[in-house]
Amino acid sequence: DAMVIQNPRYQVTQFGKPVTLSCSQTLNHNVMYWYQQKSSQAPKLLFHYYDKDFNNEADTPDNFQSRRPNTSFCFLDIRSPGLGDAAMYLCATSRDTGGSYNEQFFGPGTRLTVL
Amino acid sequence: GQNIDQPTEMTATEGAIVQINCTYQTSGFNGLFWYQQHAGEAPTFLSYNVLDGLEEKGRFSSFLSRSKGYSYLLLKELQMKDSASYLCAVQDSNYQLIWGAGTKLIIKP
Prior knowledge:
The complex is a heterodimer.
Chain A: E1 4-7, E2 10-13, E3 19-25, E4 31-37, E5 44-50, E6 53-56, E7 64-67, E8 73-78, E9 87-94, E10 105-106, E11 110-114
Parallel strand pairs in A: 2-11
Antiparallel strand pairs in A: 1-3, 3-8, 4-5, 4-9, 5-6, 7-8, 9-10, 9-11
Chain B: E1 3-5, E2 9-13, E3 18-25, E4 32-37, E5 44-49, E6 53-57, E7 60-65, E8 70-75, E9 84-91, E10 97-99, E11 103-108
């Protein structure tokens, strides 16, 4: 089955210790997204890639970086995690960015704990 | 600014019908999505509306009025497994998705 896969499902890191979250997709979608979601809040878009074109949201902290080495994989790097970065990180894909093609398919998420 | 409003929480009884409302103020409009999110899981797509009117899909229906900046999700014959958060998201003129904080639906036997 075509899907969006995120690893790991649960990640524990220490304050200030870099961490990388990974996402892969078998849907062959053009667009990949990274969201941060805290409890009872809306998902917050951090950045997205349209193919290799990177789009950073204006309010995404510099502490967050992303890489998309190929169509299938996308990584989220948190350079120096703080306690406020503890959240669920969701990866999503869509065929395109317009109209119904913006239906987003989500991975299961990675829950990040910062100690 | 851009804003999506949904009730924070609703309670309904198994077998009943519930309507979850969503109002929006966005810079442009290119469609509205509803997603379901069970606790601790990722959102899953329910419906997409771009034209005014009702879209029916099994037990779930979604309605849109663009002139009023309003949508609702209607869930019929409620089941315990429908307990989840329901997120409304609007695509603005730049095709960016603006998300609501979600409505937590609690189903009681």
